[in-house]
Amino acid sequence: MIRGEPMSSRDALNFYFESTHTSALLVHAFVLDAANVPGAVRTQADANAYAESVMHLDPIFTKRLHRVPLDLDFPYWISDSDVDLAHHVFVHTQAPGDTTAVRSTIVDISRTFFDFTARPAWELHFLVDLHGIDGIPDGGSLFVIKFHHSAIDGVGASDLVSRMLAVEPAQPSPPRPQVPVPGALAALRGLPRGFGTLAKTFVTAARMKRSARGSTGSLALSADTHRKGPATRFNVDLEPDMVWDVAWFDLDRVREVKTAIDGGTVNDVMLTAISLAYSSYLAEHWETPAASLRMSMPMNTRTMKDATTANQLAILVMSMHTDIADPVARLQAIHDSALLEKKYIADATLGKNRQPPNPLNSLPSVLLPPIGKTLRGPSKKATEAFVNTMISNVTYGRGPLQLNGAPVVGCLGVLPTVRGVHLAHSVRSVGSSISISVASNRAVMPDIEHYMDLLQAAMSSLS
């Protein structure tokens, strides 16, 4: 009998709802000062040897997806000891004078989806002997790690990567419980229970909404009472055409900027820089909306509750305060909104304020494939949007990280855009370096290099 690790309904959404328009890939990348390091990865043999040395750290490297017949149950992760590194480990070289090598390779990696039917969902890419690229020491390398959101979330990935790049040998993840994988008949017998759970979810949500209407008049899903904001050029339906770039900042300088307000954080500063750059870009195109735009970002809930899902996070949605012109006043407003929203989500997670259950997290497995195939994008002339941009923020701290002796001197990421939100920002920090990586669509941002300049200008306006 096959045994495996069951995928939760929440994690399964990332598998079934992925499409060319909405990616569920996780991409983390690290700048290595490798030019004068004898043991640095330079060849395919070096890369394979490194992969073999870290695969014991987590089951993600040796588990592949197993789908139950007719999707009568959620997929399972089953052990696959026969991992062919030729499908997982890649070395890329830079053509002479090609300063776009990193951007083009990152886009290719981020637009190439996993073949779940054949192998585990992970890849390691090494861009070696790089020259003339901003943010990368001459002769340095870029190490890119790619996972899938159905197997791990951003915080889980950052923990694993930190162990992969630790100076001292790291401990492997604890083994995860394995259960028998059901066949078609057993899964079919369990299907009524899934539909029963979905029915209870709808009944509970309806009862809570009726109760809220009878008391306060609404049942807030967020501390931000504005459920939608104005749509921008980034909130219409577009065919995929990804562009990507990265802006680098000095983390010590950012820490100085945050002292402009009481209790300010590095995250507040980075969110404000993004808000200011977004405003400036729209203003240059005479597209500034009167009302404030809105942003979303994941909030880690691991310390708040026990969970068996790979994705242990809540999505925080808040105002970007783009209607406030003064940069420091906008920083203060974003700080206040972030505090309010984080407290609201923490209280909801801990049960201090009640929220209706989300039916998406209770859908039976058999419904997910057809729903995923029929999901539609927003109007090509959308006037409202729930979110105008998505932001993720992962820090790797001050501690030293290295790969085969080559120190990590910077990191960056890719937060893929999704249908209807064609501007995404990934904030990454390590040591004294912090970056904002930006993904968009060429149709609405043909000049992404200019947007990087606007991010730098935004940071300068806060200094």
Automatic annotation (TrEMBL):
Family: Belongs to the long-chain O-acyltransferase family.
InterPro entries reported for this sequence: O-acyltransferase_WSD1-like, O-acyltransferase_WSD1_C, O-acyltransferase_WSD1_N
Catalysed reaction, written as an equation: an acyl-CoA + a 1,2-diacyl-sn-glycerol = a triacyl-sn-glycerol + CoA
Pathway stated in the Swiss-Prot or TrEMBL entry: Glycerolipid metabolism; triacylglycerol biosynthesis; Lipid metabolism
Lineage of origin: Bacteria, Bacillati, Actinomycetota, Actinomycetes, Mycobacteriales
A molecular function GO annotation: diacylglycerol O-acyltransferase activity
Record EC number: 2.3.1.20
Alphabetized UniProt keyword annotations: Acyltransferase, Glycerol metabolism, Lipid biosynthesis, Lipid metabolism, Transferase
GO biological process, one term: glycerol metabolic process
Organism this protein belongs to: Rhodococcoides trifolii
Name of the protein this chain belongs to: diacylglycerol O-acyltransferase
